[in-house]
What does this fold into?
Amino acid sequence: MEKYSRVQIFLHWLVVLLVVTAYVTIEYRDIGGKGTVTNSVMKSIHFTCGSAILILMLVRLWLRRRLPPPAVRPVLPPFAAALATAGHYLLFILFISLPVLGLLNRYHSGKVWHLFWFTGPVAAVPNPAVAESLLHLHETLAVCGYWLIGLHVLAALYHHFIRRDNTLLRIMPDKRR
It folds into this structure.
């Protein structure tokens, strides 16, 4: 097998789009001012993208366990293969834990929030201290995400342009019409 399955490729790029949207919407949530409709819509899009990322990453993890990754040609040295595997699992951990932390924060906050155009659940007895701790961890991991995503992209570019192996090509969509 030279490439990931079509489903794996589609899910990879869909998650990329959702991650970019989640980061952009939260960075620009206050563009219209706090408490505005724009702010509320941006947060809602952020929560919806995050929840979709959680679901899709669980599907991707399940697929990864069922379908082994295609071989890198030429073969990577063992330390590089181990680094690549570790990097991928760190991305999986990050993009599963970020939405879980975000959803738990919203649950404990006691504030109304929206998910997939529905009102999300809120704890009967809000716990602002827990919500704040979860939000702090969520935000800290999100910043780590910038670095991890950057390293992932740099590694892909290194493999494609310097090492000239098939690492990046394995996850690119086919050029078929």
Observations:
- The longest strand covers residues 114-115.
- The helical segments are 6-27, 37-66, 78-109, 128-163.
- The longest helix spans residues 128-163.
- The beta strands are 114-115, 118-119.
